[in-house]
């Protein structure tokens, strides 16, 4: 039971400083449930486990409420929709601003040298998007739990079903010392956009200003996020200079034979884009309940990319001579392709079209092909 606490003053709050000049070169690693469990149980306090679950609206699932009911021990919650910006045509969960990212990391107790381990409640669906976000902002140690929470449960590893500890990451005790969960503060229920009722187990005085943040290199160009103007330039380039565009949506949506899930939005694809449904880089569903998928091996992924791009273009991509851009419905499953590229050895020349097809097709000047 928590006693009344107050928030840490701005002078005492730790800042999160990073450079956005380029994404960190170390690729994202995929971990098994046992590897994550060993990290959680170890004496290494640098590990921060994040639940970054997100679901399509049609699924009618509430990831934050699911997190509150069941999670990996010590996990914090990363709200993909709230720690984000919107494109100028209203596409959600686009890349957050530097200030948003810094604020979220500082609230969640993530430090520059933290080992961030990300999972989701589907298996391998939304966690790659958050991994991409961390790498975009230059975070070094980033891992994804391959198979997510369903695989964790299938391996009979313990889940925490109690009330999340320390819901306010800026809380301090009466003597000014920080109240910290073992693996970092839990996502703030009071200070973020969910704004639920204050639970009886927690009372806090909320200051209007929490801390000051210094950002290094915020003005520098970001190399791994593409916008509509960038895609418009890419599709007009000659083939020898054009980045490869791979689309993670279903083949039916890509070819225009199936409708988009967003009402009123045309299906189809960008000129020169290649269809690569995200399921192609994942294993078949497990026979467990709930089922999950894992990422294919590097050798299997190379075969997938070569089959889609052709041998010559794939070798150009793998050698860094040609860039590759992932797109999907709204930037979520394109991140699965991005993670697959990382696993196949493509680290520095892969990007994501942030607003993806929802933003592209919403613009009347966009060229839409159906085939």
TrEMBL record:
Pfam families: Rhodanese. InterPro entries: Rhodanese-like_dom (IPR001763), Rhodanese-like_dom_sf (IPR036873), TST/MPST-like (IPR045078). This is Rhodanese domain-containing protein. Residues 43-161, 239-369 form the Rhodanese domain. GO terms for cellular component: mitochondrion. It comes from the Eukaryota. Keywords: Repeat, Transferase. GO terms for molecular function: thiosulfate-cyanide sulfurtransferase activity. PANTHER family: SULFURTRANSFERASE, THIOSULFATE SULFERTANSFERASE. SMART domains: RHOD (SM00450).
């Amino acid at each position: 039971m928590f006693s009344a606490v107050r928030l840490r003053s701005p002078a005492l709050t730790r800042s999160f400083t990073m450079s956005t000049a380029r994404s960190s070169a170390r690729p994202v690693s995929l971990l098994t449930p046992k590897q994550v469990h060993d990290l959680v149980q170890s004496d290494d306090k640098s590990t921060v486990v994040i639940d970054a679950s997100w679901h399509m609206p049609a699924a009618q699932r509430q990831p934050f409420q699911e997190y509150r009911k069941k999670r990996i021990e010590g996990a914090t919650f990363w709200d993909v929709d709230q720690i984000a910006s919107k494109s100028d045509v209203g596409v959600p969960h686009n890349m957050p601003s530097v200030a948003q990212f810094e604020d979220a990391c500082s609230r969640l107790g993530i430090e520059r040298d933290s080992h961030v381990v990300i999972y989701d409640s589907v298996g391998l669906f939304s966690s790659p998007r958050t991994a991409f976000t961390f790498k975009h902002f230059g975070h070094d140690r980033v891992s994804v739990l391959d198979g997510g929470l369903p695989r964790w449960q299938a391996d009979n590893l313990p889940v925490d079903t109690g009330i999340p500890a320390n819901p306010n990451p800026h809380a301090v005790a009466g003597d000014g010392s920080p109240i910290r969960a073992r693996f970092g503060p839990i996502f703030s229920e009071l200070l973020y956009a969910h704004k639920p009722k204050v639970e009886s187990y927690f009372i806090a005085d909320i200051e209007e200003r929490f801390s000051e943040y210094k950002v290094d290199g915020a003005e520098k160009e970001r190399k791994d996020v593409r916008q509509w103007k960038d895609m418009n330039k890419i599709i007009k380039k000659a083939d020898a200079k054009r980045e490869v565009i791979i689309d993670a949506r279903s083949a039916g949506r890509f070819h225009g034979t199936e409708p988009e899930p967003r009402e009123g939005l045309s299906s189809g694809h960008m000129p020169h884009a290649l269809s690569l449904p995200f399921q192609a880089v994942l294993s078949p569903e497990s026979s467990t309940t709930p089922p999950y998928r894992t990422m294919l091996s590097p050798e299997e992924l190379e075969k997938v990319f070569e089959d889609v791009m052709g041998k010559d273009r794939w070798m150009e991509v793998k050698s860094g001579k040609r860039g590759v851009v992932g797109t999907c419905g709204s930037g979520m499953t394109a991140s699965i392709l991005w993670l697959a590229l990382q696993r196949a050895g493509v680290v520095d020349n892969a990007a994501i079209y942030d607003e993806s097809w929802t933003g592209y097709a919403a613009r009347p000047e966009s060229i839409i092909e159906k085939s």
